[in-house]
Structure formats: structure tokens, C-alpha cells
Amino acid sequence: MTLTGLWGLLDALEPTKPPAHIPLVGVKASCLLLNTLAEVTITQRYKNTSSNPIQAIYIFPVDDGAAVNGFTAHLDQRTVRGIIQEKEQAKQEYKAALDAGHGAALLETAGPGALSVRLGNLAAGCEAEINLVYSTLCPVEESAVVLKVPTTIKHRYTPAAPFQASDAASAQPTYSSSVDYGLSLDADIYMPGAISTVSSSTHPLSVTNDPDDASHCQAKLGMENVAMDGDVIIRVKHSHLHEPIVFLSSQVDVDNGSGGLMLSFVPRFEELPQLRTEQLEFVFLVDCSGSMGCSLNRARSSPISQCRDALQLFLRSLPVGCLFNIVGFGSRYEKLFISSCRYDAASLEAATRYVQRLDSNMGGTEILAPLTDILLGSRISHSATWHDGMESEMPVLSRKLFLLTDGAVSNTQQVIQTVGGHAANTQVYAFGVGDSAAAALINGVARAGRGEPCFIRSGEAIDEKVITQLRKAVEPVLEDVAINWGVLGVEHQSPSNTNLAPMFNNTPYTVFALLSKESQHQ
């Protein structure tokens, strides 16, 4: 298993041989950020330096939930433009083009957070320029709009045989930074209010403010061709973050009914009844697999180290009298307590010692077994005996599960479905830990578990992240949310009213809709 900054073409003409890498000449990302909406254009240039024609596979990381807007491949004097087709039909047409000796390209998903593109008949000495455009919705973290441009694909663990001693070593990824290319990036930023700060915890930035418009600025990486050893994170704070905003598409197609809008607002609940702390149960499910010990950049903290720091903060912030437990997992799993125990000075001391010992030494990432164990557990805690003979038994009305992981698993959908099947009993808050945490798993689990996702990256302060998520867990949320569009005719809403997420206090809420033809005429 390896961990790489994987942006590249692979020679796939001879499947019986190991794929040969095709030299990457350059990578550029151009971003347009409109409040929380981002359009990202990635341009990459390759050259087939071999003496033979090849069929190449291009692997491209994208943000979770991104929608591809356009794809163009320039092969010497030819331009190949992408169109959307049913999967099998697209494959048949691609094969037919290759059989006829033409250049062709096929784009499809390559698992969560990645796309693959096949380029056929790339001649010897031929250069290929690939342009891919995608749109994504940016989250708001700590009162800042967060733009993430993925640059890495993390190899995911595939659950297989039971844990063996050799698994721990084989699950340790390696990383090589000895590459001849880098990334250049620029961003054109427009906000609804005056921009106060533009910053990055991952890369130095050069920011140019617009002297005529305080809501507009441009940013670019402070250095050319930076190493692609971690995702690029840009944080933008502005003065109108908490005001309701509606974006209406300027490209309205009246005949085909494709006009769209986006509604974004931050709900504020004036009075919130507090849940009784003795009826709350907090379970921390912590990834201790081999991949948690590795950072893409050796100078940065490892994910397991960040987990330990976050857990110590959690432990010292829990409400007195609640129930809690910690479960560490890898190819096997172990619980701190047989069942959740009451939070007091004695249990805090035991948990503190347990967290100090947590390490990335439990093999592969087998998340389903401990997850199922927790979700199937009764919400009436059983009598538990632990290190000093203390027993605890108390009714639990609300279980909060905090998952801390890098998300490096291949069974993402199975994990998400398992969480969704128990959403009525357990609310899940998912933490993506490390610079290359799998957003597809983190966002999917939080969405299915009626909770919130959060990402802890190297160099970022974790205090506010931990306190914010814990506050959301102890405050009631607004369930069964529905949007009433009034006289505005809407043909389709995403998510639909039956699938809208719970509404958290002071947390941005976004809904998309397609207008009816009658509304577009108006």
C-alpha cells in the first residue's frame, strides 16, 4: 500500500505489464469563489516520451459532492470535448473510436473522491492538455468559507482476512516527495459582504484586494509549483456571513426549464431547551489503523497525534454526569469500558491514561464491526465494572457518536448505509483527521447520522472545532424541516423536503431548486 500525491496518466495499452507513468509537465488550478459556491478549473499537461502510442489512464481527485461541468482534452492538433452519456453506451462509443484509430476520451468515477479519464491513441511524442471543470459547495467552518482543492488520493484499506501481526506493517503507507512537478493556483473571490481576511493553514498565499470593491479580491499561492503533498485550503471571512442569500442563475433556459437558484441562510434559535446531561451518552470511535500514523508531509503532525489532542479536549469538556466510552479500532477493536460509564473524576482519569496510549498500531481500517457493535447497543446502559470496581447503570435517551478517522476505507457506501439504518437512535458527528481525510466518508456518515462533519487538518487550531461540535451535540436540533417557496414555482428541490438534514443553531443551511417555466417567464 502506498500513499502518493497521485495526479497522473498511466499507460494502460498493455494490461499485463505494470503501468508506466507518463511525465506530467505542469498543473494549474483556477478557482472562482462566489460566497460558498466554487467553480474549479484544473489544467494539466502531459507528454508521451515513449516511442510507442499508448492508451492512458488519468486519475483526478475531486471534492466530495462536486459536479463536473466540463471536460476537454487537447491531443496535439485535436480537441476532444466531453458529453454526458449512459455508462455502457459511453464505453461502447469509446471502444469504437479506438478501433477506428481515432483519439477518444472516457471520464468516469474511480471511487469516492476521484475520477478517471481514459485517453486513447496518444501518439509517441504527443502532448496532452487536460481541462476539467467542476463545481462544489464550500462548507463554513469557524465563521469562514472554506475552499478546498484536493491534490492527493489516499489509497483505501479493503477489509479482508482477520487481523494478523503483519497487517500493521502492511497498512503503513509510504510517501515520496521526489517529483519534478508542482501546482500553481489562483482564486478570484467574490463575497456578499466586505472581505476581512483571506488565509490558508496549508500554503502561503499572496492576496490582492480590489481597491474599488471590498467584497472582491484575488489570491494565489505564494510560490510557483508548490509540492502536492496536501490539499490546498483557503479560508475567507466576510461581514455578511449570517445574512440570508439567494443566488439566481443568470443562464435561464426558459424552453427547457433549467433555471436554478440557491437559498442559503443561518438559523438562529433564541431559546433552546437544554437536554439533561445524565441522559446523554457520548461514544468516541477512534481510528487506530496504520494509516493514522502517516502524514503526507513528515513535518506535520500525524492524524493519530491530532486524535489524541482532540480527545483530551473532548474529555475535559463533557458535561458532568453524562455517560461516555472510547472505542479504538483497526483490524480489531477494544473498548475503554465494557459499557459506557458515568463521567466523573475517576472515569476521566482512566480515559486520560487510555488516550495517552492510543497509537496507529491496530492494522487495517475495519470500521464496520465496532460501528455495528455501538449502533446495536442498548440505550439503557448495562452495569459495567472496570479498573476500580466502580459500577454504572443509567437510562440513556440520546446517544452521540463521534467518529475520528482519516476515512481510508474502500467500503464507504456500506459504512454510510449502516449509520443511516440507525439514525433514529444514534446521532453521528464525523471528524476527518489529517490533510487527506476522505471527505466522501466523513460527509456521508455525518449526513446519514443526522449529525455534522468536521475536518481537523495539520496546523489548524482544534479547540474551537471540538467545542463547536460538542455544543451542537448537546443542543436540540430542528427536525422534520420543510421549505415553503410560496408563490415562487419550483419544479425540483435538492435535497427534497423529505431528505432535508436537521437544522443546527448558527449553522449555515443551503437548499437548491429548479424553477418552473412559468416562474422563469415572470
Primary descriptors:
522 residues; alpha+beta; eight-stranded mixed beta sheet; seven-stranded mixed beta sheet; globular
Strand order of the largest sheet: 8-7-11-5-4-15-18-17
Counting DSSP H or I runs of 4 or more residues, the number of helices is: 9
Question: Beta fraction of the residues?
Answer: 25-35%
* Poorly predicted regions: 1-7, 161-179, 380-392
Structural class: alpha+beta
Number of strands: 30
The end-to-end distance, rounded to whole angstroms, is 57 Å
Give a short account of the largest sheet: 8 strands, mixed
Q: Give the helix proportion (percent range).
A: 10-25%
Q: State mean pLDDT (0 to 100 scale).
A: 81
Rg, Cα atoms, Å: 25 Å
- The gross shape turns out to be globular
Task: Explain what you see.
By secondary structure, the chain is an alpha+beta fold. The protein has nine helices and 30 strands. The strands form six sheets. The protein has an eight-stranded mixed β-sheet, with no helix packed on it. Strands 22, 23, 24, 25, 26, 27 and 28 form a seven-stranded mixed β-sheet that branches. A five-stranded antiparallel β-sheet has the order 3-2-6-10-9. Helix 6 links the parallel strand 26 and strand 27. Helix 3 packs antiparallel against helix 4, helix 5 packs parallel to helix 6 and helix 6 packs parallel to helix 7. The N and C termini lie far apart (57 Å).
In short:
This protein has 522 residues and is α+β, with helices and mostly antiparallel strands. The protein has helices at 87-99, 165-170, 303-315, 345-357, 368-376, 412-420, 439-448, 463-474, 517-521, and strands at residues 3-4, 8-11, 21-22, 24-34, 37-47, 54-61, 67-75, 78-81, 104-109, 114-122, 127-137, 140-141, 144-149, 153-154, 183-190, 195-199, 205-209, 216-221, 232-238, 245-248, 260-265, 280-287, 323-329, 333-335, 341-342, 398-405, 426-433, 453-456, 490-494, 509-515. Strand 7 and strand 8 (78-81) form a beta hairpin.
